[in-house]
């Protein structure tokens, strides 16, 4: 069985990567490539789909090796009385997911990573977060 995975997000100026290492031998690295802040689908595909899946339902290629299963992102609205909680989602992207009192978040904290992509433009991180939030809103089931 897999032991607890440690998820580290290493953001450097140009290339950032997330490593998922359990006690060897398995180690999954998701490269955090440069993306356009205006292209939410490109950001989603690069940064989120490895865990949450291309369709958002939580079955990305690395999901099986994680301790906590990635949330089905298409039912956020359905689970919130039919109203998409955009401020809540944006806060999760900025500061990380809420976890049970005794749990450890597996979901990376994206704020610092997204913020590292264009430090010259202070608006860039918020633009990325709001475009990703809008993208998630667009994939909600009715
Ligand atoms: C390392 C795998 C991984 C990656 C990459 C990842 N997530 Fe997650 N995400 C999770 C896990 C696991 C959870 C469930 C909470 C936890 O255990 O941390 C989660 C939870 C969430 C939630 C909370 C849903 C809710 O209803 O509370 C949102 C929103 C979310 N992720 C969006 C994203 C977005 C957008 C991206 C890309 C920028 C992303 N995630 C990338 C693993 C990941």
From TrEMBL:
Transmembrane segments: none annotated. Keywords: Heme, Iron, Metal-binding, Signal. Residues 1-21 form the signal peptide. SUPFAM superfamilies: Cytochrome c. Residues 35-140 form the Cytochrome c domain. It comes from the Bacteria. GO terms for molecular function: electron transfer activity; heme binding; metal ion binding. This is C-type cytochrome. It comes from Telmatobacter sp. DSM 110680.
